[in-house]
Amino acid sequence: MDLCHVPATREKGWYLSLMAPNVKGPNYAWLDPSRLYCHPQGLQDCVADLLQPFQGDVIDMVAGIDAMGFILGAAAAATLQKGFLAIRKAGHLCVQTVAQPYTDYSGRDKVLEVRTDAISPGLRILLVDQWVETGGTMRAAIELVERLGGVVAVCVPTGVAAICMENSEGGKWIQERYKCSHCVPPRLQPCFDQHQ
């Protein structure tokens, strides 16, 4: 892995080529972005691209979804100089929580939790995850934030960010209702939607 090479011209999404394809079979995600996170310039440019649509917007806090959303979410929070909230899979938080069941991209039923004291009414949240495939996980996170009075709505300038937002039914539902940002250029979107 070459962590020093940076292309002479860095177009939006240049770092997507750093991601590695699945070699372990259907029980795993089709693409692994963790090598992108190891590349200093790749990670910086990815975060900058995710945050660009929100320039000038008021964001009070960044929330990342367990587990890979923690990486991008914490990087975004540090860049914005805002706090970071971890939205966890059920059973990991030792404090009072609210929970939301959901079905993930693989069809498995799961539950997300968030601590009840971190979000006050009207708090503007930027939700970050690594990927929005079917939209189930992100939608559950949105429901948790909104149930606690946080705002992730189109009428207020905060929203949702992920490396890729697939044009699935769930992905479209999110994009129609929330301000969204992702890193995949339009010419490559069909390849990502078809997992190629």
TrEMBL record:
Catalytic activity, as annotated: AMP + diphosphate = 5-phospho-alpha-D-ribose 1-diphosphate + adenine
Gene Ontology CC entries for this record: cytoplasm
Molecular function, one GO term: adenine phosphoribosyltransferase activity
Bilayer-crossing regions: none
Gene3D superfamilies from the UniProt entry: 3.40.50.2020
Pfam families hit by this protein: Pribosyltran
Occurrences of domain Phosphoribosyltransferase (ranges): 57-156
InterPro entries tied to this protein: Adenine_PRTase, PRTase-like, PRTase_dom
Pathways per UniProt: Purine metabolism; AMP biosynthesis via salvage pathway; AMP from adenine: step 1/1
EC numbers on record: 2.4.2.7
Keywords: Cytoplasm, Glycosyltransferase, Purine salvage, Transferase
GO BP terms, alphabetized: purine ribonucleoside salvage
Compartments (UniProt record): Cytoplasm
Family the UniProt entry places it in: Belongs to the purine/pyrimidine phosphoribosyltransferase family.
PANTHER family: ADENINE PHOSPHORIBOSYLTRANSFERASE (PTHR11776), PHOSPHORIBOSYLTRANSFERASE DOMAIN-CONTAINING PROTEIN (PTHR11776:SF7)
Subunit: Homodimer.
Name recorded for this polypeptide: adenine phosphoribosyltransferase
Species classification: Eukaryota, Metazoa, Chordata, Craniata, Vertebrata
